[in-house]
Amino acid sequence: MSTAIWWVRRDLRLTDNRALAAALENAAQIIPCFVLDPHLLNSSRVGERRKAFLFAGLAALDADLRARGGRLIVRCGEPATTLARLAAESRARAVYAERDYSPYARSRDETVARALPVPLVLTDGLTIRRPDALLKDDGTPYTVFTPYSRRWRSHPPVTPQEILPAPRILSVPESIAGEPLPEQPRLDVAALFPPGEAEAQARLRRFTTGDRAPIYAYAQARDFPALDGTSMLSPYLRFGMLSARQAALAAYQAMESAPTPEHCAGAESWLTELIWRDFYYSILYHFPHVVQGCFHRAYDAVAWENNPAHFAAWCAGATGYPFIDAAMRQLATIGWMHNRARMAVASFLVKDLLIDWRWGEKWFMQMLLDGDLAANNGGWQWSAGVGTDAAPYFRIFNPTAQGQKFDPQGVYIRRWAPELRLVPERYIHEPWRMPRSEQLRAGCIIGQDYPAPIVDHAVARQRVLEAYRRVRSD
DNA sequence: TGAAATGTTGGGGCG
DNA sequence: ACGCCCCAACATTTC
After folding, report:
1. Most CB contacts within 10 A, which of A4, A64, A220, A303?
2. What is the spatial distance between Cα A32 and Cα A471, in angstroms, rounded to a whole number?
3. Is-catalytic flag, A380?
4. Is A187 left (phi over 0), alpha (psi -120 to 50) or beta?
5. Contact A58, A187 (CB under 8 A)
6. What is the Cα–Cα distance from A245 to A161, expressed in whole angstroms?
7. Would you say A379 and A289 are in contact if contact means Cβ atoms under 8 Å apart?
8. Nearest nucleotide to A339 by CA–C1' distance?
9. Rounded distance, CA A7 to CA A79, Å?
10. pLDDT score of A473 more than 70
């Protein structure tokens, strides 16, 4: 009886999984195997919460496999030796996996391919369009989002036929044993982000189907962090509990059945976010130096202040700017942050505090359930104005104005920074302006219950403009 | 997927 | 009626 290994990495799903499908096409029995790679588990960029989400996701995948007659085999160790041993033990004829694009993943896969006695077959599926197949006419990669997205959209829409159904039944050899997952604190946000493919599918359906689907309001609602206007699918896409291609299909279908052009625009703008995701994978693939430093290398020379006390205040949500602090506490509390808020806090760290964007990038990786190298790195470089398609360096968010625009009544602020709950609306974005009597009435003494601003925005703005000006060539 | 600084215009108050 | 100032509202430029 022929056997193949399905090497599960960040594709924790049975639906629309080309690696799984290819394994099943070529073998009567498969071994779904997740390798706990010490390099990743001990990385300082992998937070406990994301690890817990992964482990719970593996348990969910195991349950889904068992419902189909299979199970998940977990092995611990270096992928090359672990998989070579498993291949020998099981007499597998090949190993199938979904292609990944980070420099680490690519070199790991090369090492694994060399170590295996059988072929390592890599399939598409992490992105919607292949990074190496979406190039400018001159054969070079895109470095600006808008033309990239234009070319991306010029491809035919994703069709339902492309989405591979989950296998109904599969068979795993009895003789193969796994190891238990190491002890791990349980996922404290499991109620908010239940791990697993079933939840991912349910969310996608809820977000994209019906005339009143949230996707239709996305273009307007997505900018207001107090609203429930986004899909909150990012952790699921991060671990492949949902295929990005299936998400794109849902967006196309919503566009097609949109009742009005405005509704259609909502679905289009959600699709644009999926295209951003593809774009940043493409950047990571073609320009791997972004992992270490700025896409535009000149900005590596910016003289950051890197004040550790300021960084600690930013991490803790204690900068004195309510919108920033609410966002940072949301991140620390639930392992997720609204995208509008991500842009604001990133701008604040880099432009107001003059701290190296890589400090913020790393903190996000440690805290986010959806922490993903390509998207996170791309987003940070964009915010810092040092990356592809960068916001010009002088595009500096005003931390107060961002709150006033996108959380006018301070609903989001009050939710995440409860010491400000009783602050009147006219002071909610600038509580330091409250007269003493108002502070007493609101039970919020500035400097005691809530910090005074740690920097003056107007001063900080001039400082960062000067710091960037110094490294510019033109 | 900004925001601040600067420039322009036009209405109204007022001597 | 006129010129002047103020300033809001909007437009443009600049970082």
Report:
1. A4
2. 50
3. yes
4. beta
5. no
6. 11
7. no
8. B1
9. 10
10. no
* Residue A469 Cβ under 7 A from any strand C atom: yes
A223: nt with nearest C1' to CA? B1
Told to judge if A276 belongs to the known catalytic residues of this protein, a careful annotator would answer yes
Residues with Cβ < 8 Å from A448, sequence gap 6 or more? none
Contact assessment for residue A125 and residue A98, using Cβ atoms and an 8 Å cutoff? yes
- Spatial distance between the Cα atoms of A36 and A79, rounded to a whole number of angstroms: 8
Q: Which two tokens stand for residue A318?
A: 């204690």
DSSP track, A418-440: GGGTTS-GGGTT-GGGS-HHHHH
Cα–Cα distance, A75 to A177 (Å, whole number): 9
Q: What pLDDT, on the 0 to 100 scale, is given for residue A183? A: 83
Beta carbons within 8 Å of A414's beta carbon, 6+ residues apart = A420, A421, A428
Q: Are A137 and A128 spatial neighbours (Cβ–Cβ below 8 Å)?
A: no
CB of residue A24 closer than 7 A to nucleic acid strand B? no
From A357, A359, A363, A382, the catalytic residue:
A357
In angstroms, the CA A245 to CA A237 distance is 10
Cα distance from N-terminal residue to C-terminal residue, chain A: 67
A7 labelled catalytic: no
A216: DSSP letter: G
Length of chain A: 474
The rounded distance, in Å, linking the Cα atoms of A393 and A468 is 7
Per-residue confidence at A61, pLDDT binned at 50, 70, 90?
very high
* Catalytic-residue membership of A336: no
- The DSSP symbol for A335 reads S
Question: Please, are residues A184 and A41 in contact by the beta-carbon 8 Å criterion?
Answer: no
**To the nearest whole number, what is the mean pLDDT of chain A?**
96
CA of A299 to C1' of B8 (A): 38
A357 as an active site residue: the answer is: yes
Q: What pTM does this model have?
A: 0.97
Count of other CB atoms within 10 angstroms of residue A409: 10
Q: How confident is the model at residue A1 (pLDDT cuts 50, 70, 90)?
A: confident
Q: At what angle do helices A322-334 and A339-347 cross, to 10 degrees?
A: 120
Choose the catalytic residue: A273, A336, A363, A416.
A273
- Strand residues in A131-182 grouped as ranges (E): none
Task: Say which of A26, A305, A339, A432 is annotated catalytic.
Answer: A339
What is the reported pLDDT for A86?
A: 98
